[in-house]
Amino acid sequence: MRTDTPPPVRLVDYRPYPFALDHVNLEFFLEPSKTRVRNKMTGRRVFGEHALMNLHGENLKLISIALNGHILPENQYEQTDEGLNIHMPAGEFCLEIETEISPEENTQLSGLYMSGGRFCTQCEAEGFRRITFYPDRPDVLAPFDVRMEANKEKYPYLLSNGNPGKSGDIGTDRHYAEWSDPHPKPSYLFALVAGDFDVYTDSFTTMSGKETPLAIYVDKGDYDRCAYAMDSLKRSMSWDEDVFGREYDLDVFNIVAVRDFNFGAMENKGLNIFNAAYVLADGKTATDADFEAIESIVAHEYFHNWTGNRITCRDWFQLCLKEGLTVYRDQEFSADMRSRAVTRIKDVIRLRARQFSEDGGPLAHSVRPDEYARIDNLYTATVYEKGAELIRMLRTLIGDTAFFAGLNRYFDTYDGQAATIEDFLNSFQLSTSENIKEFANWYSQSGTPVVTASGVYDSIARTYTLTVGQRTEPTPGQPDKLALPIPLRTALFSNKGRRLSTKLNGEINDEHLVVLRDFEQVFVFTDVSSAPIHSLNRGFSAPIKLKDGLNDANRSTLAAADNDPFAQWEGLQTLARGLLIDLASNEDGSMNDRIHAFVDAIDEAFTAAIDDPAFASLILRLPSVGELIQDQNASDPSKFHAARLTLKRAIARHIENSLVATIQNQETGPFDPSASAAGRRALKATAIDLLSSLQNEHAQRISDNFHSATTMTEILASMNALGNIEGGGAEGELFDNALTVFEEKWKDSALVMDKWYSVQAMSVRSDLRARLQRLCARTDFDLKNPNRVRAVAAAFAMNNPVAFHAPDGWGYEFLTDIILKVDGLNPALSARLATAFENWRRFSSDRQIHAEKQLRRLDDANLSKNAQDIITRALA
Ligand code: PHE
Ligand code: ZN
């Protein structure tokens, strides 16, 4: 255990900055090895007579400081590990600082770095301090003017935030460009890009009639893969006007795609920078999941312009203020663009896979935590995904009218400011008669509430008494939990599956909002005409785990009868979850009756859904191993995997003909990225996956499909399926043949090759370990490229539970080896990979011994602060 852990940053320690900046002027002399940065800040002291001015700085070479036009003598400032402290006079100041940095040596991808021979920046959360000395905190806002100078031939495009200004040549081989951003912004939204690109342009006329040029800058040769991102951008701009009344506010909007990026994308004002994986797509190289991700991430970053940029965060504890709200907005956008039910189901799958597991382990933290060790590690599923669920719940609790009134009040009141969750919630409190005081506890309490329900019918009084309780397990630092307000959309069905119109709180309806506020509460429905079956948390109205007390027969009835597709899907998932957990501990064949009943229920729902293939494919989906182990102890993932395989086989056998027919349905005509065409391909992919559970019976058919398929979705589904057919004979060759063909075709396209890596990292074949070793030894396995590292390491650790949790510990060792190699280059990435260990204590004791051994190895390795933070918490 390391002892030099720095103290955490705490919310209670927040203090406003004693200085205000009126203007920032930046000049860049761009060279890969030595870039000069001149930073001129004008401003004034706002309070505190003697306060030092703290400027953050990291990895900077200080060249000079001048205050009010004079070189600052050395006794008027001090340089520390964190930056500079300057003794400032009262009143106004003009501070000029010149520094030197080396973008080419920056492998952390934070600050100014090179990617594919181009300059680019990433400043959130604390990257700006790696560019110049500055109050690098989100509550210091200023308008920025930027001037860049660079070699003209190598870097013909010079971009920054805001509106373009003057540009021109300097001598024969250099040029410059100026940009000016009138909207005051914090440093984390600063961006700069310089390089050569293909430029895909279009324009959008905003609601007030302003024509705004749009451009997407991509690697040379990628021009033809920009259309979908551009289309998504235009739809996002128009949707934000229609639904939230928000108009774009600069003369231009630019997106740049870069190859090396730690996250999905970044919302820098007027200049969004994207991981190329979330920009580039065409019918040949991208899967439907890629198209969907592009649409939602383009929207997400664009929506940040209002929720994040115009109104930003006072400090990083408020991160969910922009992220939770913006995820909520992008989810609503996707729901409007595609199928609302299918979108909701996918959001819930993701929440369960990523956030519930985080909330149930040693890394659990609240949506707005009150302390953190490393800010980079706060970009979590809890802040993002649970943060979005809180917004959705708030809307459910106060209703649409108050929700939009509150949101408009928030935009009006805090525009141009750095706000807090209290500011946000207060805007809603002023717009509703509902008391939302207790709702705020959702932001401070971590852990996923478990809600239990049971009901009693009184046939004489015609009442149904529903008793609902909540309980949240302790999480790190929070032993005692409060009762939270939990909105449960609730309907009652007759045992024939008819939705009953009933009365609750004086209101007659066939669906009610039951709000559980205490640890236990009783709700009495009246006018209940027959003994009902309750359906709770419809639409996943609250991010909870539900123990609804129903039996399998009741659930099957609901699944067959419910007209709400989410509730129907959820009913079947709950059935499947119970069955799989029992199957994993009963291998004696005693469960055949339950399996048959389940398969019948699936078949019925599947047949009914056949006109909506996207939904039908979700009906056929079984809960993942990761989801199944969440509430288990001492678990053996291979047993859950085996249980899934048993159930998949039963389903596949039962509807085999229909699955085969689905596969044979060939696509004709040009590629169509629409949700409905994607739905048909999703069903095909699911059919391929299910048939592969019958092992070599359909291997040849799947291989043929691989060779004849025209879309990446199908090609990948076929490769995945072949990779999951165990055995070294003909089937093994089919997989390897497919890989060879694929590699030959796509070896020059990095994004497509990432898929080739992932397919192998996710395969469950016995040769996996050697295969991974071979992959990591390839020259194109570039540890500096996060997409490539994730394609192997994250795909393996997060999506291949059987191999990652191999009983002899090789999976843990393999991941640890990669973390150790990556950490010196890119701490944000190594820390992210290390979170794969988060639930190590849930596994069987032999696995725990191996996992702990690797965690200790990491703990002893003197890793980056980011990785160390994760390891320390995982081991605590
Ligand atoms: N703010 C970005 C987003 O959510 C995510 C991000 C965080 C990107 C930190 C890079 C670094 O859209
Ligand atoms: Zn975001």
Question: What does this protein look like?
Answer:
Helix 15 runs parallel beside helix 17, helix 16 runs parallel beside helix 18 (730-746) and helix 21 (786-799) packs antiparallel against helix 23 (810-823). The strands form nine sheets. Strands 6-5-9-3-2-12-15-14 form an eight-stranded mixed beta sheet, with no helix packed on it. A five-stranded mixed beta sheet has the order 17-18-19-21-20, covered by helices on one side. A four-stranded antiparallel beta sheet has the order 10-11-16-13, with no helix packed on it. It has 876 residues and is an alpha+beta fold. The protein is globular. A hairpin with a 3-residue loop joins strand 14 (163-170) and strand 15. The longest helix has 34 residues, at 381-414. Bound molecules: phenylalanine and zinc ion. Phenylalanine (PHE) binds at residues 122, 124, 262-263, 265-267, 300-301, 323, 379. The site of phenylalanine has 11 residues, from strand 20 and helix 2.
